[in-house]
Records
---
Amino acid sequence: MRFRHPDGSTVHLAYCTNVHPAETLDGVLAQLRDHCEPVRKRLGRDRLGIGLWLAKDAARALVTDPAALRGLRTELDRRGLEAVTLNGFPYEGFGAEQVKYRVYRPDWAEPERLSHTHALARVLAQLLPDDVTEGSISTLPLAWRTAYDDQRAATARTALTTLAERLDALHELTGRSIRIGLEPEPGCVVETTADAIAPLTAIGHDRIGICVDTCHLATSFEDPDTALDALAAARVPVVKSQLSAALHAEHPHLPEVREALATFDEPRFLHQTRTSTSAGLRGTDDLDEALAGHALPDASPWRAHFHVPLHTAPAAPLTSTLPILRAALARLVGGPHPLTRHLEVETYTWQSLPPELRPRARAQLIDGIAAELALARDLLTDLGLKELP
């Protein structure tokens, strides 16, 4: 979906396909047929943006086989789909029964991460629509925080500098500008937008910036205005933003609130949980740890890294951080010029919701994704952007 900003530039809105567990190119093609095109039709649009997730094997197939890459581009066009952004965070196994800490490997101190991300950039340069010259890729925020020392930090910095040089070369070769955004996430080396400033300014290249995920922003109790002001002051580019909402519990000390939170404790993904105290941010790596005993102070609200559907808040006594998303979006695209032109709805947890909230058939998932995109569309038009055909 495309929108005209009042300054005349085009803002792209997509939904991220990491909700669909495909590891191979055949699986990706099936996604386009079974989910992406039906979502487009459900919205009544001639064109739909998708933020493709290409796992290791799918990316390798595309970058080593020009015919396969041309075939994917043809299939996108045929089904009324377009890709200007990729989700390069998960490397493989994102649809496994248990992902947890595995999603953070390989990290930026391991050569596979550089190789994979470069492959994604080469693929995206060929997938961009003919009238689009800029693409974006979100990626791991350096590494999970444990076992990350000065030597690994230096290796990661070198890898990202090398990637920036390769992206410069790709631009010269294709005329397509691909940028990479580190995506701050609780528990990682770069947990907050503030954590991103030092490593990104050390690299000092405008092709390497930040991806602002509004669920992660809210989970870490970051104020959108403060965060985005600091990024602007440091001249860190916002490469893309993922529009997502976290789980919010206003009164975590109450038994009924903990009981409600426990229904979101599931085995597939990490749900880092945070609370803001007078002594600073406190947290656990997962929701079950927060719920066990007194691991996390409960005098103030809790927020958990659980991407809940945008268009429908969890039942009381819980809610979502949609107001944080709204505030961030107002700053990102509501000003005289957009701070980023790539927006991506990223609710990958549909099948991890409490059983009574999960879609029970493909049509229900399609309806849910379409409803999220419709909400995002309305937020953008309320900010003065005009939806384009």
Note: The chain has twelve helices and 15 strands.
---
Amino acid sequence: MNDKLRVLVRVDLDCGQAEVAAQGHVTAQSIQALYVVVKRANHLREGLDVVVDVSHARVDTAALEQLRECSKTHHLPASIDPFQSECRLRIVAPAVEKPLVAVSNAGRRTMAGRRLPALATAA
């Protein structure tokens, strides 16, 4: 996956919704650019629902927590929006990846359905 942040905005004024879809790597630093795009989308019409879709991006934990906090408070950070306009955000987060190696019910290590050799243990 490319680390460069790419953002696409789709707006449906009839339905009162804007989608801000991000791809690439969302970090604590690059999220500032994402906030600016969200702010612009939010100001297109009063009462707009803004969906921030980062499901196809690699999102650092700190950045995801910041997005969730904005969603909870209905405000963007004061450094981005000093007037603290209401911003109704809904976050579509990346799915949690499943581990490649799992332990079956019988205690055998498997990978994608194939049995792996047992690990050697020191005596």
Note: The chain has two helices and seven strands.
